[in-house]
What does this fold into?
Amino acid sequence: MTYQVLARKYRPGTLAEVVGQPQTVKALVNAFDRQQLHHAYLFSGTRGVGKTTLARIIAKCLNCETGVTSTPCGICANCVAIADGSFVDLIEVDGASRNKVEETRDLLEDISYLATMGTYKVYIIDEVHALSDSSFQTLLKSLEEPPEHVKFVLATTNPDKVPVTVRSRCIQFHLRTMSIETIDEHLRTVLDKESISYDDASVRTLARLGQGSMRDALSLTDQAIALCGTELNEASVVEMLGCAPQNDVAVLLENLVSRDRDSLFGTVSELVARGVDFSEVLAGLESGVHALAMAKATSTSPGDTLVSLLDRCDTAWLQQAYQVLIMGGRDMQYAPEPRVGFEMTMLRLLDFVPIEIQDQTPAPIVDNPVPEKATPDAQPSSQPVSSHDEQTSRTELEAEANSTNERRKAWQERPKRMQAKRAEERRIEKERSEKAKEAAMRVFTADDELPYVQVLKERFNAEFDADWLDDKHAKPQ
Ligand SMILES: [Zn+2]
It folds into this structure.
């Protein structure tokens, strides 16, 4: 028997089997149970969340030989034909590849003929947003008042591009992006049915990398099975995907929190050697920082691997770290190579520290990655010190406190300094413009009242013999 990919093999055949879309399923079940059927449905949502699957299930519900039902039998000739794609009354087209108006006209040409095998003719138009404007116009007429025996099911990943005139003639269901938990659970079911053993971390990683798409997650699982055989484990999955496992994220965060540069860049080199995808590592770090911040805000657990960091980082740092990581991810595309982008982001996390934390740890932390260093308050009491040492440490502490105060003061006075600077700039500008005005006044013209000598003196720096000057009308300067 030929191998069938998981996404196709485990494609839901009934509404009850559809996962992750409870509202939509409930609405459809109610509609079929009450026989209140609309003539056009529009499913929107990202790839791999079940749009086409639902469209085919609707075709089954309409054409099952047991009658219109929310629970098609799955064994009658019509159900089987729909499942294997040979049902002639199910017309499925891809809007992206058949978007011309002639093609839409062809499609709708025999719409008035009755269904040959079943009760209803079902038109499924996938990626409907890709149709041309005139195609939409053609479709609109049929969509407005289709014959009794015709149902339309439209699917799109981009509902905003579907004209509002089309949307208003359909019942629209927006399918949700799948949560990691939903995908995780479904993958476990599938793997159990396939009798493949797995560990929690490997399934979690596959679910996360599906990025909300069940089909993507199942395709990755296919790939993992091809590599690992009947036993999935995190190491192989991670190697296959080149992504950061939870453990690496914990190690990196530990290095960052203790500000241990050597270990941090050692870890980075290790990741480089393993050929990981640094965008994935950044995403992992973002999730880690988020887990820690949420744990601080709601006193939940950030997970076993991160719980030891909880008391050693503060909320200001977490907020800033999240921002830096997001920016780092965004700028990754501009970096000459991913490693450079990643390392610069790590350096930024080490170098930019919120002021409150700087105040607590003014000493260079590079040489002392011991966690207790981060909270200097605990230090004097934890170690017994001689009176001489005590004296020295007190002086040091005072000096530290002074320098901290100075920095804080300087920071607080910053707006005042800026204001003074701007005032000074304005004054200089005003003086300059007044001088220019004055100079313009002195430019010699025929009507000028100033005596010629005065003008010549000013314009050419000319010197004159005082006796020679005998202008009674010279104005005093
Ligand atoms: Zn049936």
About this structure: The mean pLDDT is 83.
